[in-house]
Specification:
The complex is a heterodimer of chains A (about 280) and B (about 120). Chain A has a single domain, classed as 3-Layer(aba) Sandwich (Protocatechuate 4,5-dioxygenase, Chain B), CATH 3.40.830.10. In chain A, about 35% of the residues lie in helices and about 20% in strands. In chain A, a hairpin with a 2-residue loop joins strand 9 and strand 10. Chain B is an all-alpha fold and about 120 residues long. Chain B is built from 9 helices and no strands. In chain B, helix 2 packs across helix 7 and helix 8 crosses helix 9. The longest helix of chain B has 11 residues. Chain B starts with 17 loop residues before the first helix and ends with a helix. The chains are: A alpha/beta (about 280), B mainly alpha (about 120). The interface between A and B is large, with 41 and 51 residues.
């Protein structure tokens, strides 16, 4: 059976794509953000996952309001990035992992998560930037299964539901008949709000408590409703749902406890409190 | 009957729920089209014709003309799609944040930095 080696949560602001493109990683503004990544890359170099399942939220590249799935799973041999409208460079295509895609889809539906399946799926900066941050040089060495969670249009899935879905994805990975090593990636957050008079809202205390809870008490954030989470973290801070799905995936079966590989937290990049957390299953 | 999204009122925040999604559909559809460079160019060339093509309501068209983000949200605009409209003018998220909060860009940036202390 496949081995689930761990999970990584990271922020995904579009401006990161521009900074990478322009080589600004060591500029004073960007350095505290980018300096979080080398220890996580070292861990990945050591553990060498073959496949990553990426929990992310589409920002209006693949999905529009004409059809807005709550949970959507990619089932493509290749995923293309494309123009998102604001000038960040388009990245080369990413390779899919079809067999795991369908195993996850079959498992999720069997467990009563009625997901949308996508044999064609454009992946936006939320899916691609974490891969670029984790493997900055050359072609991405892992294959990918994107799992998109709606954070665009309310009602959004509850934190409890997202946790349960993430756990089911973990069960799918661990029951996948393959000798490959799999990691789960969460892309989103942490606290930030782009829209309204409350734009610029950031909640450091909550973010730090949330990151800590993923180590000590992973279900902690599931006590909150979606609107309570928006109140505490901002309209886009709700992207922390991705982190919950990632953490829940690591709770499955033997090797269900985790150790922290590395974490980083920095305010601000763009309008966002940025977080990074790598967890290894033990 | 109270909808779920009105259960908590968060100041300065408009959750993008079914009501907003209905109200803002034409505006958001136009903004979604800005994923494509040729559509961005067509908009820049003739904004009025482009808005007409997407059947924007009068409040939506007025908010687009005014480049006013709070008015765009009131007209049903969704942050993720509006960002593509802002991108046409090279505005970043601090420009947008400053405009919505009535601050200068420097004041808005200082507020963000202060949140990290």
């Amino acid at each position: 059976m496949a081995k689930l080696i761990g999970g990584i949560g990271t922020s995904h602001i579009p401006a990161i794509g521009g900074a990478i493109h322009k080589g600004l990683q060591q500029e004073p503004y960007w350095k505290p953000f980018f300096d979080g990544y080398p220890p996580v890359r070292e861990w990945l170099d050591r553990t060498k996952p073959d496949v990553v399942v990426v929990f992310y939220n589409d920002h209006g590249l693949n999905f529009f309001l004409d059809k807005m799935p709550t949970f959507a799973v990619g089932a493509a041999a290749q995923y293309n990035n494309a123009d998102e409208g604001w000038g960040i460079p388009t990245l080369p295509p990413f390779k899919g992992e079809l067999d795991l895609s369908w195993h996850i889809i079959n498992t999720l539906v069997e467990k009563e998560f009625d997901v949308v399946t996508c044999q064609e799926m454009l992946v936006d900066h939320a899916c691609t930037l974490p891969l670029k941050l984790l493997w900055p040089k050359g072609d991405c060495p892992v294959t990918v299964v994107p799992v998109c969670i709606n954070t665009v249009q309310f009602p959004l899935p509850s934190a409890r539901r997202v946790y349960a879905m993430g756990k089911a994805v973990g069960e799918a990975i661990k029951s996948w008949d393959s000798s490959k090593k799999v990691a789960v990636v969460a892309s989103g957050g942490l606290s930030h709000q782009l829209d309204g008079e409350r734009a610029g809202f950031i909640n450091k205390a909550f973010d730090l408590q949330f990151m800590d809870s993923l180590l000590t008490n992973p279900e902690w954030a599931t006590q909150f409703s979606v609107l309570e989470l928006v109140e505490k973290t901002g309209t886009q801070g709700i992207e922390l749902l991705m982190w919950l799905a990632m953490r829940a995936a690591l709770t499955v079966g033997d090797g269900s406890s985790v150790r922290k590989v590395h974490s980083n937290y920095h305010i601000p990049i763009s309008n966002t409190a940025t977080g990074l957390l790598a967890l290894e299953t033990v | 009957m109270a909808s779920t999204s009105s259960a908590i009122k968060i100041p300065g925040t408009t959750p993008f729920d079914g009501e907003q999604a209905k109200k803002g559909y034409a505006l958001n559809k136009m903004c979604f089209s800005f994923n494509t460079a040729e559509n961005r160019a067509a908009f820049k060339q003739d904004e009025e014709a482009y808005m007409k093509k997407y059947s924007l309501t009068e409040p939506q068209a007025a908010a687009i003309r005014a480049r006013n983000v709070l008015q765009l949200i009131a007209a049903g605009g969704n942050a993720y799609y509006l960002a593509k409209f802002a991108g046409i003018f090279g505005l970043d998220m601090q420009d947008i944040g400053a405009q919505q909060t009535g601050m200068t860009k420097d004041q808005f940036k200082a507020k963000l930095v202060a949140a990290g202390k």
